[in-house]
Amino acid sequence: MPIDDSDSLTNSMFEILLALAGEPKHGYAIMREVEEETEGRVQLPPGTLYRTIRNLIDLRYIERTPEGSGGSDARRNTYRLTPLGRKAASLHARRLAVLVSKARDRKLLTPREAL
Amino acid sequence: MSSPTHATTVLLLRFLRWLFPPGFRAEYGEEMTVAAGERLRLAGTNGRFASFACLVRIMSDLVASAALEWMRETRLFLSGDIKADFLYALRALQARPNQALFAVALLTIGITSVVVIAAATDAVVLRPLPFPDADRLVYLWENKPRGQRYVPGTESMYISVRPATMTAWREGLRSFQSIGGFRWESLVFGDQPNAQLVRAHAVSAGFFDTLQVAPQLGRRLSAADFAPETATPVVLVSDDFWRSKLGGDRNVVGKTIRLAGQQHAVVGVMPAGFFPNKFDQPSIWRPHRTSASDRHDRVSWGWTVIGRLAAGVSLESAHQELDQFSRSLEEAFPNDYAQMGGILVPAVHELIGADAKPLQLLLAAVALLLLICCANVAILRASSSLERQAEMAVRCALGAPRARLIRQLFLETFLLTALAGASSLLLAKYSIPQLIHVIPFEARLPRIEEMTVDPRVGLFAIAIAGLCAFASGLAPALRATQVNSQDVSRARGTSAGARSRELSEFLLMGEVALTALLLVAGGLLLQSLARLQRVEPGFRADRVIAVRLNLPEYRFGPHDGSGDDGARRRAYRALLESLAANTSVEGVALTAKLPLQHGYNPWSLHIHGRAGAGTAASSSHSRRLGLEMHGITAIQTVSADFFRVLGIPVQEGRSFGPVDRPGTPLVAIVNRAFARQHFGAESAVGKSVTVDLTRWAPRFHIVGVAGDARMNTLSEPPQPELFVLMDQVPAANAWMIARDRGSAGAALGAIRSAVSSVDPNIVIQEAGSMPEMIGASLWRPRFLALLVTLFSAFAALIAATGLFAAVSLNITQRLPEMGVRLALGASAGTLIRALVWRYTRLSLFGLAAGLVSLIAIRPLIEQHLYGVTAFHLPTVVTVVAVLGAVTLIATLLPAWRTRRIDPIQLLRGF
């Protein structure tokens, strides 16, 4: 599936892609990482989390790792970024970077935030 | 989170999983539940409130996600004929308007109850405290022994803080960004004769920096305001005080008011709702002028200390630092800090704490009620779909896919719940302001006035309504559409009919089980209330008036409790003398504390003539005396006639008499609990005890033993008390109690005139009749019992209608069979007996299930009970009898109809 040029990533999708940018993780670990990295501002409760994961799998941005890699707990799966997902995430990040630089130019950020 | 609660939560999560479409459930259900469980466990480490808030959030999310998934899966809103189905559903409801109205009414009752209690929980427990980053605020108390931790959910009862400790903490603890404290005081506002007493906080430096709330007018306190020698003392006032006493003057800053006989400049007005408090609202914040002696004052307990944790510091690591710090304090001052430590209580627990417990019980009760309503609506839906079997069979035969039929039936339930949800929201919104006023003042929880239907509660209501739609619509729709296209040939679908009947009987059993639970809970609370009301308080309160007197420091001098307090002694004596001669008063006495007032304040004591079996002295004072401590007691300062006025018998020895004067050896009367605990079989009379009051350690000679009176609460057994004489050791302030001789309230007038003639500077802080004050102490259990009983009565009524509907459904459906049996010679009586037996048996199964599940809610209910356990046999028997009677009536009424069945007519149509 080609990456849709119109930006189709929601915030929760992007957060999950970011959380998976490092290493493969299971659902709860994604939830915790998003919460910790945003200091609790963004929360992905389980229902929303797994619906978003399902959407990302449908888009082929992420995929399940092969069986048995869920660690000691067989009840959960581990997810990882696909090359397509990585591309989509970096495209989205670039778009955000352009927006941030615009905001900086128009003095919408305090000097500290603009760093 | 305790394990049984956790197990229940996991069960709940597993149940919610079933709301999702099968595909999604198979793919992600298990791991979703695991993740939710882990998230909850994590929240559980932050206490019960956090875990409860997390549970609510996860539940709403799961319900909303399930709904979105179903929409996606069924393409519900993409399908072109949804409009047609919608209109069809409306027409179907219109065809049975009574049933639709009844279902909406039931669901409205259920959803409104849940929304109102949820709104109360939101206001009292879940909403953050009105401080920035309130989760970093903690209360610091002194505590013994060192190293203890606060257990969430328990009432916090620790030792208030001494000035030297507070100063040491402020300067020494690195885990806190800032620390500040306050001490309650009562200040006289205005001049006599219109002076009033206002509640105030004397605050330390750092108090406002810790709370980080700015005044709405004027400025915060500056360092200069705390200096010992400033020209005019300054105060901040509360929003309420500013509006009611200062006329809401926007130019009030800079003006002066008269407090405690001195001019004070108002420097600011705090915003409304600032500093919510458990018991009392302060009107004034006054800087406590620090003096050099504060730094060394290790005897004046009484400060409440609040700290703001530094960013990123956890409660536990702050606690470890505090333990370490307390150890170094003990090394420096072994006499004052022997085994002493500190304990940290998160502000939200300190301010709300145990007050949330009744809400937990009420939430459980309304959840049960809602489930009962849903089960009942499901029974109604099942019976209505039974009447429409033929229609379903025809549509099925014409090629309608089953999913379409399910959607059709489900849409009808969805419309009902949507209507009920909307009316519940409106009802809750307009009834909540009224409800708040209905709650008796004494039964109110902190912040309950802030209860509203805000967007959060609104969303919760929508989620609950959605859950109801699933709970009461899905199963009947699935069952009713299991039609066999061959059924159409007979235009009477028996297979689906039997399934619908099974479903409704299963639901009925559940309904009876839940009703039994609620009825038992209501019955137990009533039982416990009756027991509380029957408790013998140990004193006579009839016709007794109690008046709280305040003897301001600016007139009577500081009170140091050491017994050397001439001005107060003279005032007390003059008051008693002037009233003793009054003919409208039967008896008059003074006491520092009224019976049944909360707060047991124990001190260590030494029993003279007893060697060994003691612990090390607790304060520097008794250490200097070289005394061993043998136990604890509370001290009550009373005047000589206290026992006579309240009818407390002096059972041994003598009462206080004219021989006990200032200057003669100090005497005391102990209560029975004291004598039992400290002397056992021996007589207490004639013994001497020394009580370590930190500042001084007086020795009392015990002259008598009085009967036990409940000095704290009705529900607690009497604790050891030592009564000492007001004339020998005057208290700072006192209650004056007097019994009316004739007309009610005459004593109050007599006390008022005596007070103004003795010294107009004495302020009457409050006055009331003691029977009313005792009644007020029972308002909370009374209100809780009332609400739960009301819910359980509703539940019983609803269960009765459910039974009625199920029996009617059974008869309608089995008419042909009954016709055959009647034609073959069975009597109507046999049929009725069979029907009644069938449903009584179902009810009994339900009842048994309900009583067994009592085990699960036992911890929840038992914390509200006094003198009964959850398995109180008479209550259980009563509930069985009530539900049995309800079952019989609700079954017999429709069953009676079978008498009118005409077998010939029936068989003709068969």
What does this structure look like?
The complex is a heterodimer of chains A (115) and B (910). Chain A has 115 residues and is mainly α. Helix content of chain A is 50%, strand content 8%. Chain A contains four helices and three strands. Chain A has helices at residues 11-20, 27-37, 46-58, 83-105, and strands at 25-26, 62-64, 78-81. In chain A, helix 1 packs across helix 2. Helices cover 52% and strands 15% of the residues of chain B. Chain B is built from 27 helices and 21 strands. In chain B, helix 3 (48-74) packs across helix 14. The chains are: A mainly alpha (115), B alpha+beta (910). The interface between A and B is medium-sized, with 19 and 23 residues.
Overview features:
heterodimer; A: mainly alpha; three-stranded antiparallel beta sheet; 4 helices; B: 910 residues; alpha+beta; elongated
Instruction: Give the amount of beta strand of chain A, in percent.
Output: 5-15%
Class by alpha and beta content of chain B:
alpha+beta
Uncertain runs of chain B are none
Query: In whole angstroms, how far apart are the ends of chain A?
Result: 36 Å
Q: Quick check: average pLDDT of chain A? A: 84
Strand element count of chain B:
21
Mind summarizing the main beta sheet of chain A?
A: 3 strands, antiparallel
Beta strands of chain A, count? 3
Which percent range fits the helix content of chain A?
Answer: 40-55%
Looking at how many chains there are and whether they match, the oligomeric state comes to heterodimer
Overall outline of chain B: elongated
Strand arrangement in the largest pleated sheet of chain A: 1-3-2
| CA-based gyration radius of chain B | 34 Å
Q: What structural class results from the helix and strand content of chain A?
A: mainly alpha
